[in-house]
Amino acid sequence: MLSKAQVEQYREDGYVVAENVLDRSELATLRGKLQELLEGARGLTGHTEIYDLEPFHKPDDPRVRRIKTPHKFFPLFREFVQNPKLLRILQQLLAPAVRLHGSKINIKAPQGGAAVEWHQDWAFYPHTNDDVLAVGVMLDDCMMENGPLMILPGTHTGPVYDHHFEGYFAGAMDPTRYGLDLSRSVALTAPAGSMSFHHARVLHASAQNTSNRSRWLLLYEFTAADAWPLSGVSDLDEFNGRLLSGEPTLEPRLEKVPVRLPLPPALHQGSIYENQRAMKKAAVREPALAM
Ligand SMILES: O=C(O)CCC(=O)C(=O)O
What we know:
A 7-stranded antiparallel sheet has the order 1-11-6-13-4-3-2. Helices cover 19% and strands 22% of the residues.
């Protein structure tokens, strides 16, 4: 469970880190499965529905940037969301009734794993209310040099920024356009087995991995069960099948939240890395300041 002060920090700053949530064996199981998946990229000549590859990937020298929606393909990553320690924290931050929205594993290989530009997850998947967050399960130690998640605290109560470029959704915003003070950003550094929780509206990014160690981050997105995606629900059984606790409802909770739809869709589809290729100017070059 999070302490009262940690819950307050999440409400105030839009993020919180819970250190050492997983025990050694839980961590080893997740890492072992990921290692196996990374080896499965050998021989691939392009992105698949599971693998997003670095531009310099080669079939005989595989470089994976992301495993897409692992909960859909691998039972271990679907079962993990029932972890009672995780569920208790989600209920503290969201609501008694919680739904899984999505998942991904972002992999930063040593010496050059990709940067992610500043963005709000909310720009990708606005809902009827903003009891929506992402969890970063740290499968490696996340330190300044291996490209930790960086957050601009308090931005979860501000506007939804323009994530379009030349008329198309691009999955990134330009912080200089809004005069945002990035020196206030905070790096979410913690040992492997820790988890970060960030609000869907908080601005965040991460720099390249300049170290000799990998940075594996398993990300899940969760919502309160009464937060419905504004993109609609095409399969009600599948939607309700992602409820982790509580009862299904046909009555979304509508809150006055700022929304900007991710339309027309990104020119480069497939992952945030692909979407952000449309941005000509990179804002994330250097690791931000430590907490
Ligand atoms: O992997 C990271 O450091 C950033 C992840 C992120 O913000 C995303 O995938 O939306």
